[in-house]
Amino acid sequence: MEQFQEVVVNLAAGKIPKTTDSVTVYESSLEKVDSTHIVMVKSGTEKYLVAAGEGALFNELEGENIGQGKICGLTHHNSKVLNKYFDYTNPQAFGTEIATMGLGGDRLGVASPGHIETVKNRKVKPILAQQSIRELTLLNRTMTDVLDAATFAVFQEGYKDGYGADADHIKLEKDIEYALDLGFSFLTLDCSEQIRNDIEGATTDEIHKEFADLPVDRKEYFENHYLNKPFEIEGLTVKFDEASLHKNVLVYGGSN
Q1: Each residue of 105-134: b (16+ CB within 10 Å) or e?
Q2: To pair with 9 at 20 to 30 A between CA atoms, which of 151, 204, 206, 254?
Q3: Are 159 and 125 in contact (CB under 8 A)?
């Protein structure tokens, strides 16, 4: 840990640490809470939080003490400490009046700093934490890993304009509850298992017969709201006749 000594000394003195041959300092991450200064650094291939001073923030961070400072790994515990003291590291929900951009997700937890660079000073909010359950399983990651990676990236870059977290391709109710409990700011529901692809191979008579067997109130709902009613979408008129309505209700009706 000797390579961090100069960083600790500068932090303790209230100075901005500088990059050395062995340690890269992310100056944009430098923060101060009461008597504690904290900054993110990189040594070799690993990143750390370096804190110096005293007070609640310093005490709550987990790491190895060195002189007047502490060298802290990018752990889930330390991610939650950052969330507690720096609100901009928490994901936000932006509603429908603010443009957001999904950036393909940070599959390995290392790409978000680059994603942040693409949206800085632009009128769009990035969705930094975004990965499906299937991808998490394949990569042996968790929803917690995704949120932690976004937290550390935002802190590293000093990005304070807000970001979102999308629990992507959610299929099960338990995963919805889990994602919301973790702090994801919105959900993308995957209804693919409720979509009936077999209807594509059915005849018109078969489709009409199956639609006729639906509960009366369900049939009346779709017919009253959609049958032969025009919908204007950016200059395009969409209208469902009887055949297309019956087919679409059977294909997608189970997913609503």
Answers
A1: bbbebebbbebbeebeeeeebbbbbbbbbe
A2: 151
A3: no
Cβ atoms 113, 90 nearer than 8 A: no
pLDDT for the residue 5: 93
Q: Which of 73-87, 112-126, 153-167, 194-208 ranks highest by mean pLDDT?
A: 73-87
Domain boundaries, the chain: 2-74, 89-190, 194-255
The CA distance from 159 to 254, in Å, is 41
Question: Looking at the predicted structure, is the pLDDT value of residue 165 above 80?
Answer: yes
Angle between helices 242-252 and 216-226 (to 10 degrees): 120
| pLDDT value of position 73 | 97
How does residue 109 score in pLDDT terms, banded at 50, 70 and 90? low
Would the pLDDT of 63 be above 70? yes
**pLDDT above 90 covers what percent of the chain?**
64
Rounded-to-integer distance, Cα 92 and Cα 237, Å: 35
pTM for this structure? Answer: 0.81
In this predicted structure, the answer to whether residue 245 has a pLDDT above a threshold of 70 is: yes
Half-sphere exposure of 85 (CA within 13 A, CB side): 20
User: In angstroms, rounded to a whole number, what is the distance separating the alpha carbons of residues 60 and 58?
Assistant: 6
Judged on CB neighbours under 10 Å (0-12, 13-18, 19+), 167 is buried
First to last CA, the chain: 56
Give yes or no for a contact between 24 and 50, defined as CB atoms under 8 angstroms apart.
no
Distance from C-alpha of 109 to C-alpha of 64, rounded to nearest angstrom: 24
CA distance 96 to 128: 18
- Give the separation between CA 161 and CA 248, rounded to whole angstroms: 41
